[in-house]
Hints:
The structure holds 2 protein chains of 2 kinds. Chain A is mainly α. Helices cover 54% and strands 0% of the residues of chain A. Chain A has one domain: Non-ribosomal Peptide Synthetase Peptidyl Carrier Protein, Chain A. Helix content of chain B is 14%, strand content 38%. Chains A and B meet through α2 and α3 of A and loops of B.
Amino acid sequence: MSAQEKYDEAFIETFEIEKSDLTEKLEYQSIPAWDSVGHMALMAEIEEVFDIMLEMDDILEFGSYTTGRETLKKYDVEF
Amino acid sequence: MSFSLNAEELKKYQPNRFPFLMIDIVEDVEPGQYAKGYKNLTNNEWYFPMHFPGAPNMPGALQLEAMAQMLTVAITTQEGLSGAVTHALEHTVRFRKEVLPGDCLRIEAFIDSWRRGICKGHAFGYTNGEVACQAKMMITIPDILEQYLPKR
């Protein structure tokens, strides 16, 4: 499974959404499932899938589906 | 190292007060791991006269509250968290038998995970050696959780 597929699957599994929902409009609090608890669940899923430990600043910056990809590049995740 | 908390000492770690403090004693707490203790129920409990006349039993919502309060002690006895306000996020509870006047409700609460201000845990409530209630719970300390949330 590619990094992009793992990334997408993390969102789909955590928020119980469809692949078609994965757009640049998907951001924190843009859907009911991506609330404060959902954000922590997503961060935990991302960490598990990519076997990384996110820094606090990166968790704060992980505000959207789009910006999250940029954040993960810091952890040598290649899309 | 585990320790115990008497009726006054536990108030340092559990902000609820009468008539909503649902635990009497913490016999054994390992911060960040578990808390075990009990609530003694007498005929004088404020809810028995109306729940229900002629058939008093502890409301299920308060059994759940008692388990959540015990789990909170396991959280707030960790370093730097004494007196922290907690909020419930999601609880799933199963009631197995009535909890009656004269019963001692023994509660054992366990932390399954604690990370970034969110605790996932579970608890059992026992009377007369049998499970009376059990729950899976998610509790947060909002002040910690908010530190990790993106700004909009």
